[in-house]
Structure formats: structure tokens, C-alpha cells
Amino acid sequence: MAQISLTFPDGNSRDFAAGITPAEVAADISTSLGKKAISATVNGAHYDLQWPINADATIAIHTLQDDDQALELIRHDLAHVMARAVQDIWPDTKVTIGPVRDQGWFYDFDREEPFTPEDLGQIEARMKEIINARDAVRTEVWDRARAIKHYEDANEPFKVELIARIPEGEDLRMYWHGEWQDLCRGPHLQNTGQLPADAFKLTHVAGAYWLGDHTRPMLQRIYGVAFKNRKDLKAWEIMMEEAAKRDHRKLGREMDLFHMQEEAPGQVFWHPNGWRIYTTLQDYMRRRQDAGGYVEVNTPQVVDRKLWEASGHWEKYQENMFIVEVDEDHAREKAINALKPMNCPCHVQIFNQGLKSYRDLPLRMAEFGSCNRYEPSGALHGIMRVRGFTQDDAHIFCAEDQIESETKLFIEFLSAIYKDLGFEKFAVKFSDRPDTRAGSDEVWDKAEAALKSATEAAGYDFDLNPGEGAFYGPKLEFVLTDAIGRDWQCGTLQVDFVLPERLDATYIGADGAKHRPVMLHRAVLGSFERFIGILIESHAGKLPFWLAPRQVVVASIVSGADGFVNEVVAALRAAGVRAEADTRNEKINYKVREHSLGKVPVILAIGMKEVEERSVTVRRLGEKQTAVVTLDEIVAQLTQEAKAPDQA
To answer: Rounded to a whole number, what is the distance in angstroms from the first to the last CA of the chain?
Structure first.
């Protein structure tokens, strides 16, 4: 029998018979490891313990103590166990797919009756029974014809369609938990008993289209979360309770910031208070960009499909675009336009007006660009996930040898803004070429190498995010951590050699010849809507004073103080502080509770004593102690606090 050599993490190698499985390798090392093993890494790939190894390889055996591999497998197996539980309870339910995501998984089902909260409890109970049964997990490789017949006989049309989408020649793996079977690439645990029965929770149900195709019937998606132990699940539940208190939709109502309604799905109706946050943040970003050497432009909302075809968006991104048909002069054929989903092709049109010289580079072109992208209704989430939004978008047209310096400048620019907005640290992810992309492999090799080199030269480490680049180039993603430990991907920087080529952008080099510029696509906030939602939740509505929509309420304790209340308000407004009077015939405690709920940072209370002393009693949001200061002192103090960080 043929022999193969397996090399272990400590550098030692051993010979085994070809076709040996990682489970057999683990058992050969020790009986204990054989029982504890959950998966392996073979030549860098995550490997099921039952898959045979037929050639020399490096191998590492994983147990439940390995965080990344263990959690991925726990969540993956729980998705299968949940699907099995659903079909055990409701046998006529059709199953589709159930991938791992974030801190858990989801699985989509086709069922006439909607799932209820009570149903989720019933499913959880059945899942625990399956786990406690310790059913063995086994796998087989089937050919396409056998797999299709199996699912046709089982009346599982979604699985039949899924098989048709799998490339010819790729293995079709069938997995069993006991007698229940599913199509899956794997890997999986050895038995259901390796799953922690007390460390998972089904969270909610949402609608979802099959494979994201909104022309297909709506399915029901059940979400779950899972951790390695009960302690980690409890910590997650506590964080979720805190997150619920900070939910921007709840705070948006309490602070009267915005609303959404069914006549405009995924679009924001900004109220005066919310729009004040928006414009204050926009003014701050505009000043920052002016200081950073950006020129601001504005481009059309509706653009002919010809430009989107030329840019590649029509082919690669059309499913996310809103198409607009225009009947110009009652022509036989309507003009086909699209609402712009992004600003980049329009910025190239501005760059292409007139000759550009190497002396004009780098040209940093910015726009607060209003964009529209189709998002499935089930994915919409307050102002965090919308269809209409405004990006703090910019494109840097530069020479290839300027990529490194411009990347460094941008990261410094982004870092200063995040710090001003209360985010001291961020992580960087590097996203390389996706399966669907424009441009040759040679161009992608060059773009990826340039961005990696520039990021390292700027002094930043990064984690790899394979296959998640834009269709036209690799990108950096900047991930913030908020006040309760949640991560938010906001800023991006993308290197693009493709779009300048497709849209024929050129500049005259020092040699007098035409050259292609490189485009760096960049955003700091991402979208104003989403970033404002992040700010609201991270600060629990208690926004920094300079950004708060209502900064000061001056409240009378008695009606005799009304005149001085109005004088204080006038003095604060003259100094640039957003102040308002509350002279209603209500008790001061009532006024304080109401304005505290609205997250007003400072409440100034005025009674007859304050009138006589020309002073105010200062109460700050979240503080029990009050202080009495003179009118001049409070005006000077709040005037300074009202300045944005770049103006202080």
C-alpha cells in the first residue's frame, strides 16, 4: 500500500498509509486525542476528520479548545441540527441552505405557516434532544445524478436547484446526523454530542428570498447564535440587553431624530433634530476634507445605462441598482437609466474634462454623494441598512508611485477623524479579489501587491478577508469597536487599475506621453446614515456636546424667571450654542425627566434666586450633582464645548 508523509506543527513527520483519515491519525497519536478531535487543518485547508488524505501533507488536529475552528464547527453543525429539528417537528417543511455568520448561523425554510416565538422554543428543545442523543456524523461523496434523484424523490426542490449551481467536477458531499441527511461541503463534528447543549439560542425569524433573488417566493430565515460554553452565551445575552437599550431606532423616537415608513422603504425621513446631527457632521467632514487637500464636486443622480455598461457596473452590479425608464418625447423605445449606486464613474467624467498633467496629481476629488442601492426588504434595518444614503465619498487620482504615500496620508486622515468622534482604535482588514471581478489576474496581482505594501509601509497590520474585494479592485476595510465591544466596518480604501482603463482616463506624464492614473476609492464614515446610527448606539444617545442636536435647555422653575430664561437663551445662541427655552407651567422635575429622556446634554434651571444672582443651576446628563455658575461663566464654558474638535 502506498505511503504518505504527514508533517505535524512541531516539525516532526510520520509515514502513514495513503487514504488515512485525520480521525485515524488523531487516534494513532493518542486515544484521548482521538476522542477529543473535532477537525483538522490539512495543507492549510479546514478538513473533516472523515476525509481521506492521499498525498504528503502538513496536518494539525483541532479540539474544542481551538477557538476559531471550534466555533465555526459548532455553529455549522448547529445549523444542520436546527434544520433536522424543524423537519422532525414539521416534516413537510422544505430546507434550503444554512451558512455560518457572525456569532452564529441562519437557515432558510420554505413553509406555509409562519414560525412563531413559541415555535423557536420548541425547535430549541428538539435540538437539545438531538445533541443528547450523540448521533454519529458520517459523510459520503455522491455523483450528481444520484444526488439529484435523491432530492427529487425526497421532494426537496431547493437542493436540486443548488446542485445545478455547483460546478461540474466538484465533489457532492452528503452528511448524516443519525438518519437525517443534508448536502454540505463540510467539515463537521464527529457526533452531535460534541455540541454544547447549553450554549446556543435561536434569536429571531426574518423573511429572505431564495439566493437573494427578489423575484422568487419569500422564505423564512431562522437565526441562531452559539458559543463554546454557557458563560460566553450569558455574556452575549447581557451585551444584547445593553444593545437593546442603545437601539438607534428606539433612541431615534425618544430624541425625535427620524422615522421610516412603508411608502419609502429603506429611505430616511430626517426630523429637525436628526438633520442637525447630519449637517453638523457633514460640516465637520467638509472642513476636514478642505484641510486635507480635497476638492468637492457634485454629480447627477440619474445616469444613462451606457456609462454603467462602460464602467462594468451594468454587468457586475445591476442586481443592486434601481433602473429608471424615461419616455422621452414618447419615443418607441424608452431610455434606460439608473439611479447611481456609487459615485466613481461620475468622478472619472469630471477628471476627463480637459487635459490633466502629472503636476495635477494626486487629485483628491470628494463628494457627499447621494446613492441608491437595492437591499432586500428583510435586510433593511433602521438607518443602519437603507436603500438611499449619502456617502462621504472621494476618489484620489494618482500615479502608481504615489499609492504608498496616499495610502499613508489617508490612514492618518481617517485615524484623526475617528479619534475626534470617540473611536480611539480600529482594526484593518485586507480584502482581495472576488470570484466576480473585472480586470486581468495580472492587474489584480499588481493592485493587491501595491495596497499591501502601502499598508505595511504606513505601519499597520491587517487581517486577510479572502474574496471580499470590490469587483474592480482590492480594498482595506477599517473596523471600529464601539462602547459595548461591537465591531462596525465603516471606512474603506480601494486600489483600482480597472476603471481608469475602462473609462479611458489619462494624464500627461513628465515624458509628454499619456498615462493611466490609478484610482483610490475611499470613504471614512461610509454612509452618513449608518455612521450616525453607530454614533447614537455607541454613545447611547448621549452624543458629544458639539454634535448633540439639542445642546441646552434653559428651564424656568417659576413663571417669574421667564424673562431671565429668554435672556440666557439669547446669550447662548449669540455665542453659537444651540439653546432653547422651556417656560411651560410644569414642575422642574418633570421638565428635567422629559429633557433627559430626549438626551439633552445640559439643562439650566432658573428660579428667582438665580434671577437675582444672574446665575444658573447646571445639570448635566447622567450626573446627579448640580452646580451654580454665573451667566457669563456658563456662556464661556458652553461656547468652548460647542466647538467641533477641529475648531477647538
So the answer is: 77
Q: pLDDT (tens digit, 9 = 90+) per residue, 431-485?
A: 988 887 877 888 888 888 888 888 888 788 888 888 888 877 889 999 998 888 8
Q: The domain spanning residue 618 has which CATH number? A: 3.40.50.800
- Look at residue 250 and tell me if it is in a domain: no
**Residues 374, 456 within the same domain:** yes
At residue 80, the pLDDT reads 95
**Cα 181 to Cα 269: distance, rounded to the nearest angstrom:** 48
518 & 382 share domain: yes
The active-site residue out of 126, 221, 246, 521 is: 521
Catalytic residue among 184, 344, 346, 371: 344
Q: Which of 108, 119, 182, 393 does the annotation list as catalytic?
A: 393
3-state SS of 402-425? Answer: HHHHHHHHHHHHHHHHHHHCCCCC
Mark whether 46 is an active-site residue.
no
Average pLDDT over residues 208-231: 88
Decide if 340 is catalytic.
Answer: no
Active site residue 126: no
Phi-psi region of 176 (alpha: psi -120 to 50; beta: other; left: phi over 0): beta
**Same structural domain for residues 416 and 445?**
yes
In order of 71, 176, 448, 455, the CA distances from 195 in angstroms are: 10, 15, 39, 40
Whether 186 and 219 map to the same domain: the answer is yes
Which SS3 state, helix, strand or coil, does residue 510 take? coil
32 and 152 co-located in one domain: no
Residue 194's pLDDT band, with cuts at 50, 70 and 90, is very high
Pair (305, 325) in one structural domain: yes
Number of domains within the chain = 4
Both 143 and 92 in one domain: the answer is yes
Q: Which of 94, 316, 373, 620 is catalytic?
A: 373
504 among known catalytic residues: no
pLDDT tens digits, one per residue of 83-112:
999 999 999 999 998 889 888 999 999 998
Q: Are residues 138 and 25 in the same domain?
A: no
User: Can you tell me the distance from the alpha carbon of 152 to that of 405, in angstroms, rounded to the nearest whole number?
Assistant: 58
Per-residue pLDDT at 510 exceeds 70:
yes
Q: Tell me the residue range of the domain where 529 lies.
A: 258-538
Q: Which of 69, 87, 391, 551 is catalytic?
A: 391
| Number of neighbours of residue 593 by Cβ within 10 angstroms | 11
Which residues is 366 bridged to in the sheet? Answer: 296, 394
* Residue 239 covered by a domain: yes
Asked if 521 is an active-site residue, the reply is: yes
Domain boundary among 63, 82, 112: 63
Task: Say whether 395 is catalytic.
Answer: yes
| Distances from the Cα of 310 to the Cα of 201, 305, 307, 339, angstroms | 48, 9, 5, 16
Annotated active-site residue 313? The verdict is: no
